[in-house]
Design goal:
222 residues, Pseudouridine synthase, elongated, two-stranded antiparallel sheet, ten-stranded mixed β-sheet, 6 helices
Length: 222
């Protein structure tokens, strides 16, 4: 696939697992700057955790001034949640602790999922990019500091159970900006009284922007 000729606009990228959002931006900036023969301004419109995959909207050139508007758009995710254990980071990269061996019935899971649809409040994960006292929360947490995360109001527009085979359940969540799927997974585990963490996460859409129009990062740099 050829590299798009974009000077001012957006580039939709399918982020691979194991890479930070800042890493994606850096690679796009390096390639576009090389093609242009000068430094090209590049930014993102909302981070994805390193373990997560999926749609990132990259803003380029003058479009960078509109980054905040893109970041406020609603998003759709598909997530695999593992029941029975919790993670210190809410994802597979943290230290896992067994909580319960109870196996919830599908009807129990469906009933709990319904309680999270609509206006809800969340306590964002400590290991997140949210700034607390001017510093990134995850940096404070890595130093061993106690971080008080403020609760926030978010909206879950829909929550669909795609598959359930204990200990894994896969959901599709259409949510407002600012919603943490890691926190949603943990809260679902608490409601089921078995513990849970987000094992896999893929962002499939940002408002009307979908993965069908996204470029695979490995193709972009071949």
């Amino acid at each position: 696939m050829s590299i798009p000729d974009i000077q001012d606009g957006i580039l939709m990228v399918d982020k691979p697992a194991g890479m930070t959002s800042f890493g994606v931006v850096a690679r796009v900036r390096r390639v576009l700057s090389g093609l242009a023969g000068k430094k090209v301004k590049v930014g993102h419109t909302g981070t994805l955790d390193p373990f997560a995959t999926g749609l990132m909207i990259i803003v380029i050139g003058k479009e960078c001034k509109n980054a905040a508007a893109y970041s406020k758009l609603d998003k759709t995710y598909e997530a695999t949640i593992r029941l029975g254990k919790t993670s210190t980071t809410g994802d597979p990269e943290g230290e896992l602790t067994e909580v319960s061996q109870y196996v919830p019935q599908r009807q129990e899971v469906e009933k709990v999922l319904k309680t999270f649809v609509g206006d809800i409040t969340q306590t964002p994960p400590v290991y997140s990019a949210i700034k607390v006292g001017g510093q990134r929360a995850y940096k404070l947490a890595r130093k061993g500091e106690v971080v008080e995360m403020p609760r926030r109001a978010v909206v879950v527009y829909s929550l669909e159970l795609l598959n359930y085979s204990y200990p894994s359940l896969t959901i599709r969540a259409h949510v407002s900006s600012g919603t943490y799927i890691r926190t949603l997974a943990e809260d679902i585990g608490k409601a089921l009284q078995v513990g849970a963490y987000c094992h896999a996460l893929r962002r499939t859409a940002v408002a009307d922007y979908g993965l069908a129009s996204a470029i695979q990062l490995e193709d972009f740099f071949n």
